[in-house]
Amino acid sequence: MATIDEELGQIERDIRQLKIEYDQYFGGGRKRPPTEIEWRIDLLMKKYAERGGELKSGQRFRFTNLSQTYAKYKDIFRKKLKQKEEGTVQRHFGAAAKAIEAERKRLASASAAKDEPVRCSTSGSVEPGPFRMTCSDPDQETEKVTQLYQALISAKQQAGEDTGKLTPANFAEFVRKKTKDLREQKNCAEVEYIVEVVGGQARLKALVKA
Q1: I want to staple 111 with a disulfide (CB 3.0 to 4.6 A). Which of 67, 96, 104, 118 is the partner?
Q2: Is residue 36 part of a domain?
């Protein structure tokens, strides 16, 4: 029987595959939409939405991140399906480029209106907004460090980067040393860590807080 982490990993892989197959469908490379993958994702999403109390804090954060990403994709797919059914989508490069640009502008407007950080990559795919966390004493804020670690793992997986060398232990040691060094060098009370996907690459930034 699969563990919670294994099933969350399966959801993440399925979401990426769903995006690829929907792009193929809208581009004319598939005859039917990938409803089987979508059905499988929906089942697992419903399962963990109902069993949220069983998840650890890091798992809960990861599931929430996946849920938000999936919801954004679903909204895009639904609108494109509607356009396809109404015959308003033309299958040539110019129309595709214009559709991607229009979707980017729509998402940017929605983000500004809701104050939610949503971006599109150059391929038109949705990139999750940045995860922010402030820390003053990592040894006493282990849950925060765990959430930051899960956010970075999720961002790297979203970007298709290797996560094999990144472990909770060496990451916690990195955060502890980085926080200590910045507090001493900049004489600040806290350090703000930001995890985001920019241009298809996962990034971790550390900023001083007064």
Answers
A1: 118
A2: yes
